[in-house]
Amino acid sequence: MAGNMQKTDKTDSNLSQNRHSMADDMKPVQAFVTKTINDWVPNLAGVLAYNLVMLMVPISLALLALLGAVLGQSSIRPTVIKQVTSLFPGLAGQQNALDLASQQLGQSSGILGVLAVVSAIFFGSLLFVVIEGCLDIIYRVRPRPLVRQFLVAIGVFIIFIILIPLMVFASAAPSILFSNLANLPFLKSIPGGSFVLISLGGILGALIAAFLLFEVIYLIVPNQKITFRTSWPGAVCAAIATEIVLTLFPLIIRLLFGSYAGPIGFAVILLLFFYIFSMILLLGAEVNASFFEGVRPIPNDLVTFLSTMAGKLNKDLPEVEAPAHVDTKPTD
Fold first, then answer.
1. Which run of H or of E encompasses 295?
2. pLDDT digits over 116-126, tens only?
3. Domain presence at residue 96
4. Which of 37, 89, 245, 296 sits at a 20 to 30 Å CA gap from 104?
């Protein structure tokens, strides 16, 4: 009996060594693709997109309420609110209604103001808890304890609120600078020179704002100590991909969904946008984990790997203690 157990353990050890050797022999790009597929990134993106759709309206309204309370009647309030609504494409057509809501909630006090703050914290933390779960799978780390998980999620959401004015400034500064440069006499003499400079300023500003958003998520949300050196490449890739998608997405919608109209068409387009955004977010994390943190791909897809590990853990349990529906034989 003992001999059989030792033989089995030796076989498992050899199998594990062979798998590690195969992972080490993979080329970096091949390992990245394998890790992305085996981590179920397309499926996780669907989960994240669903949560984004479900939490989009309450988070945005509560966020606008907080900004309205902080900014009051400041001259930059309309610009900040416009930036917030641009983060949620489904709310872009409700600009006037949201502006009115932010004014009313910003001027309110007492129970309504408290409810706005509590709802913002609650719904915002739920979203970042889901993001942490996805990133923990990518980085191969355990999730934080429940209380700490929500505390970190609340902290990230508060940082997100603080970053919004900074993102507005970062996105506007290059446009203003390049607009002033476009008025120089020698640039005016170049056909299209002013237009090119102004366009470049807008693109650069949007890239900076997107980079800040992704960098904060990659740096803080995973349950692992991550440095700026190992997180900025994925944030840059995600920011560039986001701007490409935002540029091409209207064209794609006109080509593929031109005949769709009404609530159904809007829902399909919204789900597609958030799914693409979720894929970009997770792929940026995969870039950091694969190329800069040295996280190797698991040998099978996520479900097969879990069933394999569960089979190995349960193989020495008496049959009377194992549920009848559990196959305790390890899978390949």
1. none
2. 677 777 888 89
3. yes
4. 89
